[in-house]
Amino acid sequence: MKKIAIVYSFNTKKTSKIAEMIKEAFNDDSVEMVNAEEINAEKFNAYDQLILGVPTWFDGELPNYWDELIPDLEELDLKEKKVAIFGLGDQKGYPENFQDGVGIMAEFMESLGAEIVGFTSTEGYAYERSLAERGDQFVGLAIDYENQSSKNKERVTGWVTDLKKAFS
Fold first, then answer.
1. What does DSSP say about strands 137-138 and 133-134: parallel, antiparallel, or unpaired?
2. Most buried by CB count within 10 Å: which residue of 25, 101, 154, 162?
3. pLDDT of 2 over the 90 cut
4. Within the chain, where are the H helices?
5. pTM for this predicted structure
6. pLDDT tens digits for 9-55?
7. Domains and their CATH numbers in the chain
8. Buried b vs exposed e over 110-147: b needs ≥16 C-beta within 10 Å?
9. What are φ and ψ of residue 48, in 5° steps?
């Protein structure tokens, strides 16, 4: 059985809510919730498949806890791993870097050999630019809690359905 981790900061309220929705949608007790502020490279590498919660901070930056973990992960070989990323951003308040954290993390994970799964459509969002955008898709699940929270459950449920197929 493949080991799946949802890695996010337990101290982020909105990201935590989405992580819990993802876990619930998986409906699988083997999916583990892991605090990004306490994980290290060895534990990160112990999972076969990873779901990373990466909100975009400030003007398109990774949160501090991811910034601090990245140097520890740089030597990992993730060629056998599938990684899905979900992120929170504000498309109205920060339209010029909406979901940049997701794009930054996807690029970093790919540089380590991971296969990024869980792309979602950019349709239904209004923003200027995003590092998470590839063609007409985001490289993960884009959540805008501030402006589109009514769509969270539907987006999470659809994304997890796709992830189950990608992870099988």
1. antiparallel
2. 101
3. no
4. 13-26, 41-45, 64-73, 100-111, 145-148, 152-167
5. 0.96
6. 999 999 999 999 999 999 988 899 999 999 999 999 999 999 999 99
7. 4-167 (3.40.50.360)
8. eebebebbbbbebeebebeebbbbeeeebbbbbbbbee
9. -80, -35
